[in-house]
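Hi U.,

Before I forget, here's the chain from the pilot set. I'm dumping it here mostly so it's searchable later in email.
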Amino acid sequence: MKKRHWYDYLWIWSIIYFALGFFNILFAWLGMIDFVVPLLFAIFGGNKLFCNQFCGRGQLFGLLGKDLKCSRKKSAPRWLASKGFRYGFLVFFLVMFGNIVFQTYLVAAGAGSLKEVIKLFWTIKVPWGWTYTAGTVADWVAQFSFGFYSLMLTSTIIGLIVMALYKPRTWCTFCPMGTMTQGICQIRQKIKK
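Structure:
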């Protein structure tokens, strides 16, 4: 049996993150760890160690799909792992993230008002007002929280869907963070030559 390490339990982080955000949306900011750390590994380490070993979301999909048998374990269509789809999804993801930042800016500048709503799949509005008490922090801080939590929740739901339909870690083949870190690693390799 494979020896377990502390990082084999980082799947718990994914569950804690969504649970905390469900009760207080301001915890959504903790998700920035999942944005920044993989980039730091790629930029300074030149590797995808975070994706391969420390990604709590990937571990969660593996646990649910493989260990708890929630996956059909079928091969995904090739186009999901194609360069065109991966980079297209990355661009779409970055545009959605840019929209979150822009909406946050509008609220900070006073040109927009706080929208206490989670958007699933970037379109389905789910009222989420109970998770935030107005005036706790600046409205722009809360606005970013609602938008970022929406992004994280939507991408996790997409990951769960492809996990159930295909192999457990199918999400990892087109994960925007994985695509970005892979691109950074490739650039680093070219610079070293």
